[in-house]
Amino acid sequence: MSAPLYGQVPDQPRSILVYVGVDLVGDGLMKLPFLRALRAAYPAARITWMAGIGKTVYAGILAPLAQGLIDEVLENPRIGIHWWELLRRPLPGRSFDLVIDTQRRVLTTLILKRIRHRIFVSGAADWYFSDRRPAQRPPKPPAMIRQMFELIALASGAPARPDAPLHLDPAIEAEAERRLPDGPVYVGLAPGAGGKHKCWPLEHYIALAMRQVTAGRQPVIFLGPDERDWEGEIRDAVPAALLPLDPEATPLLTIALARRLSVAVANDSGAGHMLAAAEIPLISLFGPTSPDKFAPMTPRLTVIRAQDFGAESMDAIPLAVVADTIDRSLKA
């Protein structure tokens, strides 16, 4: 998704600063492809990730996933908030070959430009403050990750490709193997979401799990902390189903378990982005939210939209369509 560039592509930078405001768990999961693409574009650079006005999960729960992708994390240095920051130089004594500004608030961009740098890339004010700009100004991509990919493409002069490997602790992968041993064909089902309006009906997920049992496959149900009250109903309806996540399970274990699946189905949810990080075939169900904006980025993604069946509500998606899509994915 590269665009024509103005000027000559700079030499490979040795130091890169990426600015974000704050990263919650959902933000961190959605930005993983950006991290992988940035490292793939600049394998030898020292990459500093700065959450200017808050915390970042890359210094916390997702720090193990960022190993090899980020070299340094700066949390909450209070940079990019007040106009008087323009009167001083942020991060005094430091300089970077490349600064990537992932936000679009003009004041914050002006403050970040005060950091010593060689190349500055930002989409704020239609790229006005950026050292590298699209030769043509196409509409801003609706998906945040596509907008971030555009920053990499402009900086490097090549399409952004999230090819850098994602590393997991061998102990976590061993625990995932213990919970999902080799042998069965595992089909993952993640029935939850941050809002009930984004959930395909639970009875459809239960029926889908029962179909997998009948087909000789092993359904694996992924429940988040807010969905624990569904566990009894699922176990009663599908005794053969596996529910491998305990309430204390981390996103890292979820991703490790997902790597052992042959295919998975999820709503527009954090769990869907965790399954996507495993790069397995993923069937993503959408209704009131837009897949153009929120669909996970993964190489083997199938999106099923409720609107294609005459309504916006999730219950418009037919069970048979999802079941057939699983079958086709496994045959492929």
Polypeptide structure, described:
- This protein has 332 residues and is of the alpha/beta class.
- It has 2 domains: 15-156, Glycogen Phosphorylase B (Rossmann fold, 3-Layer(aba) Sandwich), CATH 3.40.50; 170-331, Rossmann fold.
- It is built from 12 helices and 10 strands.
- It has helices at residues 25-41, 63-66, 106-112, 124-127, 144-156, 170-179, 202-214, 231-237, 251-258, 270-277, 291-294, 319-331, and strands spanning 15-20, 46-51, 72-75, 95-101, 116-122, 186-190, 218-221, 263-267, 282-286, 301-305.
- The strands form 2 sheets. The chain has a 5-stranded parallel beta sheet. The protein has a 5-stranded parallel beta sheet with strand order 7-6-8-9-10, with helices on both faces.
- α11 links the parallel β9 (282-286) and β10.
- α6 packs across α9.
- It is elongated, with a radius of gyration of 22 Å.
Helix content: 25-40%
What separation lies between the terminal Cα atoms?
Answer: 27 Å
Quickly name the level 1 CATH class of the largest domain: Alpha Beta
The strand line-up of the biggest sheet is 3-2-1-4-5
Shape: elongated
Number of domains as seen in the coordinates:
2
Return the structural class. alpha/beta
CATH topology of the largest domain: Rossmann fold
Which band does the percent of strand residues land in?
15-25%
The major β-sheet equals: 5 strands, parallel
The radius of gyration over CA amounts to: 22 Å
Q: Give me the CATH superfamily of the largest domain.
A: Glycogen Phosphorylase B
Mean pLDDT figure: 93
| Count of DSSP strands | 10
List low-confidence stretches: 1-9
Q: What order do the helices and strands follow?
A: EHEHEEHEHHHEHEHHEHEHEH
What is the second-level CATH architecture of the largest domain?
Answer: 3-Layer(aba) Sandwich
**Total of helices:** 12
